[in-house]
Amino acid sequence: AAPEVTSKTTGAVAPTANIEIVLDETVVKGSTGNIVIMKKGTGGNPDTVFETISVTDAKVTIGGVDNKTVTINPAGDLVAGESYYVEVQSGALKDSAGNDFAGLSGSSAWTFNAADLSTSVAWSGSSVDATDGYINTSELSNATLSGTVSNPAGATSVAISSIVFKATDGSGDITISSSLPTISGNNWTLTNNSSWTSQLVNGKSYTVEVNLSGTLSGNAVVGSGTASSVAIDT
């Protein structure tokens, strides 16, 4: 009998992860045939080809118990937050007797999505109001940054890896990479401290980028969030 699927990568995966399909018997590569990773379109846009991989390519390997597991290592990382499906051409895989795997086709046979991390970022603190686009002297002395992390895939060890104040005139970034806030209950706050407030230059406008890192099934997941530009008016 021809090989049949027993399990495959589904749900949320790290953008850097490999994807796998497990068959019910030992399989080998066919002499021809492609495995096509498709990215689902959004907002009315059509689905697009993310990568076409020949089954004979080294990016496709067979191993595991009794050589039943086919692992696909795309050349590029998946795009966080996007949904994908995989099509496998008939005959790309065979069992040891030469029976062709029937393949997988269509947008629902093998689906998964690339995990995404994000956070809101807002100026906060006592008597701080950045909605007018300015932070004045008294506000800067009380200013904090805060946000809430979105982690729909359930990544673990989620942490802030850096906070970057980006001058909108391109004159240079101010990066905080130590003494970073911890995330508790998906919430975080950067407390007021002259170590970062003193670096903000009067008359310049800054956006704030908060970068995140985490792990999903042993693979790295990253993300970020950005606050709108504010001008330092001290």
Describe this structure in words.
The longest helix has 4 residues, at 137-140. The chain folds into 2 domains: 5-114, Immunoglobulin-like, CATH 2.60.40; 117-233, Immunoglobulin-like (Sandwich). A hairpin with a 5-residue loop joins strand 16 (156-167) and strand 17 (173-176). The protein has 234 residues and is mainly beta. The strands form 4 sheets. Strands 12, 13, 14, 15, 16, 17, 18, 19 and 20 form a 9-stranded mixed sheet that branches. It has a 5-stranded mixed sheet with strand order 2-11-9-5-6, with no helix packed on it. The radius of gyration is 24 Å and the shape is elongated. The N and C termini lie far apart (77 Å). It has helices at residues 137-140, 194-197; strands at 5-8, 12-13, 19-23, 27-29, 34-39, 48-54, 60-63, 69-72, 83-88, 93-95, 111-114, 117-119, 122-124, 134-136, 144-150, 156-167, 173-176, 187-190, 205-216, 219-233.
| Mean pLDDT across every amino acid position | 96
Tell me the name of the CATH class of the largest domain. Answer: Mainly Beta
Q: Write the CATH architecture name of the largest domain.
A: Sandwich
Number of structural units classed as domains:
2
Termini separation comes to 77 Å
Main pleated sheet: 9 strands, mixed
